[in-house]
Design goal:
By secondary structure, this protein is mainly alpha-helical. It is built from 4 helices and no strands.
């Protein structure tokens, strides 16, 4: 068997996976594209192992290791995607900005100033006045 056939097939698989990673918006499709790229690498490892007639079969051993790592990666990746989908309601990559995004209404800085009554607490009306505006800005930022 010529080395060109599996090498061309692996190149096509890798290019298809690369296109999927760069062009897709859905996180699950991006994970599937990464799996395609890993399978292209596995195909190359086995093809070169057979072509070089390695007595230790290092390419096939490395392929088994890569398959195990890919299985763990897809398991963790799907768990992360499901957690993000439950929290945000979407798995669209463009809409997932920063998970540590905070709003001014949610995290008001504590400047140590006492409230109007001198008790060291803010008035409830100040928080109620800024909360709707802050939530509207956050909803607009996630669109």
């Amino acid at each position: 068997m010529h080395l060109a056939y599996p090498a061309v097939l692996a190149a096509l698989l890798f290019c298809t996976g690369l296109y999927g990673v760069l062009a897709r918006r859905n996180a699950i499709l991006v994970l599937m594209s990464v799996e395609l790229m890993l399978n292209a690498v596995n195909l190359n490892l086995v093809a070169f192992d057979v072509w070089l007639r390695d007595t230790l079969h290092a390419g096939q051993g490395l392929t088994l290791f890569t398959i195990a790592i890919a299985a763990a990666e897809i398991g963790i990746g799907l768990a992360v995607v499901l957690a993000v989908y439950r929290n945000r309601g979407t798995s669209d990559i463009d809409r997932l900005r920063d998970t540590a995004e905070t709003d001014a209404a949610e995290a008001l800085p504590d400047d140590g100033a006492d409230g109007a009554d001198g008790s060291g607490t803010r008035r409830a009306t100040e928080d109620q006045d800024t909360a709707p505006a802050g939530k509207a800005k956050k909803a607009e930022a996630t669109r």
